[in-house]
Amino acid sequence: MSAPTGGPREGSLEAPQRHPLDWNNPDFYNEESLFKELERVFDICHGCRRCFNLCQSFPTLFDAIDESDTMELDGVAKPVYWQVVDHCYLCDMCFMTKCPYVPPHEWNLDFPHLMLRAKAVKYRKGDVKMRDRILTSTDTVGSLAGIPVVSGVVNAANRMKPFRQVLDKVLGVHPDALLPEYHSNSLSKRLKGHSSSVSAEPAGTTRGRVALFGTCYGEHNEPHLGEDLVAVFEHNGIPVSLAGDTRCCGMPKLELGDLEAVNKAKEYNIPRLARLVDEGWDIVAPVPSCVLMFKQELPLMYPDDEAVAKVRDAIFDPFEYLALRHKHGKLNTEFRNPLGKVAWQVSCHLRVQNIGQRTREILSLVPDTQVQAIERCSGHDGTYTVKSEFHADAMKICKPVVNRVRQFEADHYGSDCPMAGRHIQSGLADGTQSEHPLTLLRQAYGI
């Protein structure tokens, strides 16, 4: 393999840097230019191979090279490049934990954002399945499936094998994939008219007033997450108000490559969230991918947008927020119930935020509680696991996590990403239920 640029093959000792995503540049969507960059990056990856055990993108690439006539990238057919792209679900772990050639290294590798560019090119070409358009339209699907009576029919149908087999043939949704339930009694309905009677003082970078960005998943699929968050925060004297009329953060559409839809979500959400920040509210969301969208992806897409930066600096993961309060002596540590052994899968989009293991830190304060962190991908990865062509790979990725939960003989297990928790539950297939850390913390408080 020949190095794409001159200079020694060594990693940078400086902290990784992300460059803004130049998605409005016409060259961003130029397929010839894209393939030139794919060739450059894939050639470097072939010579390194440190990421072989992350997702299926890298084994797909490396196997194709090893099985080619030349055993080099030039022997790989171009359609394989798109297979590599399709296996990437933008977890960012290669950039954050493996690659020695990320910026500021002269080779300037950002594999996830190159995959995002390729997905955007595919989407603009119209090379996208109807299934993927539907699965990523979370607000629309959630609103329709959450209509009273309809939600019951949808949930019942999703548990019926004949219906799932039809869904597999018609849309390509795997019959064994665990699909989320839909609730007509959504989070916004449950919290309608809610007002906090508690008050809190600022502590560190927290102002002690929280606007809850409920997320589309928390709104329609697991509304109890928002209720648990409100209960825990108000038990700590932190007033919580629902962030009001917001939409999906845009992460599902980002993973599809539909950047125009991401832009529409941004144009709707950011003014509303920025206004809350101006009014003195911090923002908290119970799903790591949603927090990451506002903390990283939107700021990289809109590096000069002051409102985006304002929201970026004011949004928190729930346990990040509680840990900051604890650091300043503002956390209620009077727990009534031990939790025993807790297996906690550290979701990829939580690790990317570089906030440390704050969930483990807080849960470990509960007496007679042992928390084992599992820093491996769950394999759920947005819509990846529900797709018929990828479900087997998703279960393979999840297997080490499932084995760790079993070996630990956990009393409770779950993830900050509720979808990852459900995927682990599917892998265990022993009748147990995953539990979100917020739910566990509420149990520990006995509230």
Automatic annotation (TrEMBL):
Cysteine-rich domain ranges (all copies): 210-295
Keyword Iron-sulfur carried by entry: yes
Spans annotated as Disordered: 1-20
Entry GO MF terms: 4 iron, 4 sulfur cluster binding; metal ion binding; oxidoreductase activity
UniProt cross-references to InterPro entries, sorted A to Z: Cys_rich_dom
Keywords: 4Fe-4S, Iron, Iron-sulfur, Metal-binding, Repeat
Protein name as it appears in the record: Fe-S oxidoreductase
